[in-house]
Amino acid sequence: MYDIRVVIIAPGETCRRRLREQLNTAGYIVVADVPDAKKGLRVIFQTQPDVIMISAALGRQVIKIIDEHRIAPVLIISENDSQLVREFKQDCFFGLVFPGMSEFMLDAVIQVAVNNFHKLRELEEEVRKLKRAVEERKIIEKAKGLIMQQKGYSEEKAFRYLRKLSMDRCVPMVKVANAVISSLRRH
């Protein structure tokens, strides 16, 4: 139905079995259910699931490791939600799963988590691109400043000079700017 692959990491066999059954009934693919964090991490890195459900009892450190790699959204399995929210508020998790939760609610939590995780990854990629663009702009501005200083060009003429070099050589402007910086610093 969804083709969403899930890994369950929880020490209790009953909890894992119950979740596995609920997920299978709802159309999710449970690629693994394991009792401990070490095995869980191994399975996660090998299978690259779409959703990770992990017991709060296994601790924050495991969630931090998973979050660092941004593999999939983490849903925390817990029986005590108020304590959990206070304990885990600094960590990046996408929802809470409780034993006995209705299939409708479980499905809603998973769908929201997957959608929000994809949005987060898109935003992170956009931030990376913007940071790269700002860094490239700084390099171009630096080259432009050196050209103005060394050749006595106006700001506009220095920019046109860089742009012409870039176009003539069929090379991105930032590469030309780096070459200009290296060249003018030697002189």
List keywords for this structure.
187 residues, alpha/beta, Rossmann fold, Arc Repressor Mutant, subunit A, 2 domains, 5-stranded parallel beta sheet, 7 helices, elongated
Question: Would you mind describing this structure in some detail?
Answer:
This protein has 187 residues and is α/β, with parallel strands linked by helices. It folds into two domains: 5-101, Rossmann fold, CATH 3.40.50; 127-186, Winged helix-like DNA-binding domain superfamily/Winged helix DNA-binding domain (Arc Repressor Mutant, subunit A). The chain has helices spanning 13-26, 37-47, 60-69, 81-88, 103-151, 155-169, 173-186, and strands spanning 5-9, 29-34, 51-55, 74-77, 95-97. It has a five-stranded parallel β-sheet, sandwiched between helices. β1 (5-9), α1 (13-26) and β2 (29-34) form a beta-alpha-beta unit. α5 (103-151) packs across α6, α5 packs across α7 and α6 (155-169) crosses α7. It is elongated, with a radius of gyration of 25 Å. The model has no long low-confidence stretch (mean pLDDT 88).
